[in-house]
Amino acid sequence: MFDRFDIFFVQQLVNGFSLGLVYALVAIGFTLIFGVLNVVNFAHGEVYMLGAYAGLLALLFLAPPWAALLLIALAAGIVAGVTLERVAFKPFRRFRDEASLKSKAMRESTLLSSLAVSIIVRESMEKTFGADMQPIPRAYANALQEPILFGELAVASGQLAILAAAVVMFIALQAILYRTRVGLSIRAVAANPLGAQYVGVNVDRTVIATFAIGSGMGAVAGILIGLYQGTIFPAMGFAPGVKAFVAMVMGGLNSIPGAVICAVVLGVSEAVATEFFSQGWADLVAYLFLVATLVFFPTGLLGAGRDRV
Amino acid sequence: MPLAVAAFVFVLLPLGLSLAGSGYLFRLAVVTLIFAILALSMQLITGVAGLLSLGHAAIYGVGAYTAAILATRLGLDAALTIPLSGLVSGLVGIALALPTMRLVSIYFAVATLGLGEMIYVTLLNWVSFTKGPLGIGAIPPLRPLGIDLSGPLATYLFVAVITAFAAVVVHRCAHSYYGNALRAVREDDQCADAMGLNVVRLKIEVFAIACFLAGLAGALWAHTTGYVNPADFRFAESILILAMVVVGGLGSVPGAIIGAALLLLLPEALRAVGEVRILMVGAVMFLCILFLPKGLFGEVSALDLARRQFGAAWQPERGLGWR
After folding, report:
1. Do B250 and B47 contact (CB within 8 A), yes or no?
2. What span, in angstroms and rounded, lies between the C-alpha atoms of B124 and B66?
3. CB contact under 8 A, B104 and A309
4. pLDDT digit string (tens) for A165-179?
5. pTM given for the model
6. Which residues of chain A lie closer than 8 angstroms to B100, CB-CB?
7. Torsion over CA of B189, A253, A27 and A201, rounded to 10 degrees?
């Protein structure tokens, strides 16, 4: 039925799909924070990296079971996210009126401060642990690389774990957003921070909750992907961070389902591009998508539309 | 004041450096001047016109690679490669600006980040043209029109002259009616549009001027270093240039130069502590945004200084302002 080329191509699509899920895992937290604060969190990639390191240290010293490992990464991510919010975002929300909440100056100063914090965190990690990739204990790395065969297709167990994590996170996030009071206040602040404040929502606490949820998810993504790909190093957050950003822009900025779909599209297109070009040129795909989306579909492919001023 | 600065840059500093007789100090001074050009050009787009560009290092890289390729493949003279690099970078800037100019604030920043990374990926992978990750070596030193400027003092003076040229260009763009129009675009582009300014054209013009200057800086880098590599023109360098502008003060022309000098010389002074350059950049940038949001030499003080020193517009007997 399939000749060899076809099965190889389908295999590439499967790999691209799992790559897309990797981007989606990062994009979920990114989009959540952007949706609420309307500012880009350049340090999200660093939270992802910190989650991976926290998990790795736990592995080396405690060798916990899988569930505990993910919980440790989640906790590290929540701590990192809340600290990040306190350090890089809170000081710039000192004015409460509508004009300054929406002002360009506030958006740009938080953009720059999160960028500065991300540089500091990444460089300190480099000074502490070295810039090289960390060796990963054999048992854990192998557990994620075990091939599972579906007919002629081989899927690594890590790819299934990432799929499961993406599905669980997506459902958990939707449940939090649409079934809990915290979710209600997050949606209220995202829609209108001042209005939310008028009806008694504690904006400050809501923002912290958003950072905690988004960063926790980013950190779990970090440890899973780091272990699966075997790449845990201080600059590991940059590439997925940029790709997640592209997915977010393509998905219409504040739509989490849109970001997830576009992340998968992006991953599959990159995998297909490696069929035709070398790996180096395939990196162009994401940036081409980004620029093309910004230029031709300024409201995103799946967005509800938001003006870009 | 301008005379004092000129005397310091052209007489006192080279005199002191010659007395110290150290090639390392001369090299440091040249690199600082090159980054001062970059910071000045970034100041024009980011500080004065309010377009946050995260891909400036890539434009600088285009300039450096243009000079490197023209000088090594075609054996062109430095008197030709430097202006040509500026022109090529300016044209690339216009080509990048045309589709992205209708984006505002963060969307423009991200688009420039994407375009910058595209340029980097191209420099890295187009091996037949750019030699890829190996970089281009053996770029001839500065010998414009057969005059040998490859000695440390002559190179320094040549780079200083071009930096002065860049400073004058940026000064004339920023402290004039043209600069006021750019500031109006920065504060509120819809309002500026309604007042009859051609916003898109202004943005493209200023972007082209800044890219031209960045291209000059790139050519100087290629000729003074003798070697270019894609890794020198990545996102991290864009952030370094941005940090210089932010630390110096957004919208302030002297601030850009102060920021460039501070962020290059401070890490060098701290070299004994260890290789902490990028960490310092991050820390200085963060503390600056937090405690000195206007920068070390804020826009208001800079405009005040420009008024006092060059204030034609405020001396009625000389007519009104610069056109």
Report:
1. yes
2. 14
3. yes
4. 888 888 998 899 899
5. 0.85
6. 291, 294-295
7. 100
